[in-house]
Each structure stands twice: as structure tokens, then as C-alpha cells.
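Repro:
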Amino acid sequence: MKERIMKDRRILSGILIGILIAFVVFIKKSEYINSYFSMGKLQFLINDLNEEYLYDIDEKSGEEGIYSGYLAAVENSSTYYLNKDQLEVAKIEEKGDAFSTGLGLMWSADQNYLIVSSVEKNSPADKKGIQPGDCIVKINDIPAIAANSDEIVQLIFSDKSEMNHYELVRNKENLKVDLASEEISLEEFSTEILMNEIIYIHLHAIKKDSNLRLKETLDKMDVNQYKGIILDLRNLKTNNAEEIYKISDLFLDEEVAFKVINKKEEITTYNTKQGSIGIPIVVLTNGGTSSGAEALVLALKEHAQIIGASTAGNPYFSKLVTFKDETGMSVASGIICNRYGEKLSKEGIEPDIKLYLTEEEKRIILERGYTTHEEDSYLQAALKSFC
């Protein structure tokens, strides 16, 4: 029996090494393996781990750990390995939707429960009647406290559609619901008229032909009768360069919106054509304004006032690569530049008027999880800029 086990382990070790070699060759596109990597060391590691480790080894996770670790060594936040489930989720997100329960969450001030800050329309959470301000105290009998954050986050943001039992409190009333993540069609944008004279556009997600639907909405509104536009790009992220360019074309004259440089130093220039909107524009940003959303900020920067916090400083457009075994990776494929070819800084885009959350806002968010338009200091500052 012992000899059989040792033989199986040697076979498994050989398989793992073979997989690693193939993977390294694929990534490096080289005829040799970098001498820094030691085949013998990996052999010893696997053998000793199987001999000494207290528990059974999940060999599948071990294999994927090799791939994940290799891409992690690239030290680029836009480049990472995706297992089958993660790749399916990434494909959903790439088209502007989400795989989620629909809950926006934050820790309470004492970190002894989670506060629901938002609920996505038509999501599992919305269908079960969960509301912003509800407090999650347990998931699957695990207390929702910061000390259990790893387990809690894994349950809430799992890449699999697994049913979990939530215990909530609303106005001292106890609620119990079962939720599982599913594909959600996100709302692309919302529009409102504020103070009877300002158009407020909040971009939530970028999808194919979002620009056409936004243009149709603006055309119906006859924008030139209004005093100005507030374009809210807070917490917006996208890798859809073409759609971002077309949205920027709704607001700009014939000019260069932004540029993208690839590995070969080839430059793709996105030129707008349609003609600008003839009223002032204010753009709202924060640390969640990332990647393609930052390209839109760069495009509008010389024609709009930027108000809020610095953007994320994610200077990459990335694309998904699918392997034959239905796993894949996200890989940074282009660097975002402004119209002059200057690369987007990892420090982000500094707004014209830099704002911080007020103490009152922080208190409200910690207690309730969200703010109203009247309590939103960034939005209020944008409205005042038109006075």
C-alpha cells in the first residue's frame, strides 16, 4: 500500500511539473525555461508537502495556485489568473453586467455587523425585499463581524451560485432570507433634473451601445435649454475603450479624446466627430473611477470642471484570454494616455476641486450606509458650481 501511494505521488508530481513547464513556456513564449526556476525544487516541495503536511492536499487548487502565483509575480493589478467560475464571472462583467446578490455592503462603525448601502434593481436581494439601511448580522450562522471577514466575504462574493442564509435586522425587526448570486443586468445610467435647471447623469455601467441609448435620452431632453450637466463617474470601471470613446464623442468637438499604447508602442488614437454640447459640464470622480472611466475623465478634462476625489490611477485597458480548458486570464493590453500622449499616472487624475467626505457624511454613511442627494457633499458642490 505504501509503495502504491509513493508511486501515485511521483506520478502526480510529474504531472504538476509538466503542467508548470507548459504554462511557463506558454507565457514566456520562449524555447527555454528561465534558469531561475528549479524543477528539482518543485519536486522536493511536492514530495515533502505530501509527507509532512497535516491534511490532504487539494491537488486541483495546487495546480491553479501555480498559475495564479506566476501571474501575481507580474505585479500588475489588471493581470491575473481566472479559474472556470472566475472566468465566467469576468465575462459577465466585461459586457457591463454583474454576477452578484445585488447587495452593496459596508461595515458598521464598530464592525459588529454589515450595513446594506445599496440594492441593485431586479437582483436576488431586491426580489427578496432587502432595503438600504438593513443590517446583516449573520450568514449561515457565522456572525457578520470583522473578525470573520474572510469567511463572510467569501460567502457574499462567491463565484458560484450557492444559496446562503442571511439574518438581518430592520428597525429592530429580525428578518431571514436565502440568497444566491446570479447574473444581473445592471442599469447603465440614470438621469434627473435637479433644481429645475441642471441635468444629472449618473453612469453606473458601460455596455455595448450605451452611447446610443445615452444620446437618445439627451436628444429627448433638449439639453441646450438647461444650465449645465453633471456627469457622475464615481465608482465606474470599464474596459470598453470603444464605448468610452463614443460617449466622449457626445460631449466633444472634433478632436482627440484619448490615446492607448500597446506593448509594441503602437498608438491607437480615438478622435471625436459629432460636435460638443453647448452647455457647461461638471464631472464627479472618486477613487472608484477606474480604467476606462478615467479615459473618459481625460477626454473631458479640458472642457469640464472635475470635482471630487482623485481617480483610481488604473492606467490599463485589459482583455480576457480564454484557454482550452475553459480557464483564462485577464491581461493588461493597453496603457491609457491623454490626447497629448501622456500616460495616465498611477496616482490618478487630480480633480480641479478636491473634496473629502465631511464628518457628517461619514457619520450618516456609517449609520445608514448611503446618503441622499441633499447629504451628498460632492453633488452639492457640483450644483453650487453653476451658481
